[in-house]
Amino acid sequence: MFDAFDQAHGLHAFAPAPPTRLLVVPATAHGGVAHQLLWLLARRLARQGEQVLVLDGMATESAGSGLRALLEATPGAPVPWPGDWTEDAVSGVHIMPGRLGLLQLGNQAHGRPGSATLARLVQALPQGVFVLLTAPVEVLAVLLQATGARPLVPLDAQPRTLVEAYNAAKVLLQAGELSPVLVPMAPRGHTAGGRGLAALEAPVAALAQCARTHLGADLQIWPVAYDESRDTPAARVPEPWWFKVLDSALTVTSDVVASDLRQPAEVAAEPDSRRC
After folding, report:
1. What domain of life does the UniProt record list for this protein's source (predicted)?
2. How far apart are the first and last CA of the chain?
3. Does domain 18-262 match CATH 3.40.50?
4. Buried b / exposed e along 155-181 (16+ C-beta atoms within 10 A)
5. pLDDT digits (tens, 9 = 90+) for 170-205
6. Contacts of 267 (CB under 8 A, 6+ apart)
7. Predicted local confidence at residue 93, as pLDDT
8. Is 181 helix (H, G, I), strand (E, B) or coil?
9. Distances from the Cα of 116 to the Cαs of 55, 72, 149, 161, in angstroms?
């Protein structure tokens, strides 16, 4: 009986580590719409029981902290958790500054496949976390080149975000060899003053046509009307939209080589009945 126990214990010791999953939201110059998307994703994931790490490529690490410190730590050393994201007071959501660390990885990425760079990033983080990565598109294109990641490019009715979204898609497509997804966003129930999704149909359609004409890409469009009045994150976005986003996450195992990148399955262009 004890021999059987010892064998089972030994097998358990060699059990594979849980994978790390990754969703990518390019940072925007004005920040508002990207922050709103990150907030929706982080809270929903945490309420599902995920340990969520928001890796902020716009925030600079202080000495001995953040992503840069983890990259410079002794291999095999315990990986500490970053501080809780107390702004939203949600258990299970953590935020880590990472601008310098991501730049360091980007400088090391030249001449290496994107999967190797992503491997180095994931190996520096706690195992099994759900990473929400936000950074400038130029950084993301280098770090994630040809990995199969599908960055979620948020936009609202502001003309400047439409221009930013097109430029982001161009960089991610051409430099990153990635498949960006446009995510038009508007509060549900707010149609006055051009705030609803209906106001985004024509400009987003024009943006998609420009991408087809000038970039040779048929961008997927996943519009979402979120409900700010709901008490729980699960009720703030439509279920079909949420599951499409979740299925698009890139999965990376602990001992990462190129073959360990799990590209998400192909998904339909429209996750719900609202069409841009």
Report:
1. Bacteria
2. 63
3. yes
4. bbbeeebbebbbebbbbbbeebebbbb
5. 999 999 999 999 999 998 865 544 468 888 999 999
6. 220, 244, 247, 248
7. 87
8. strand
9. 18, 17, 14, 32
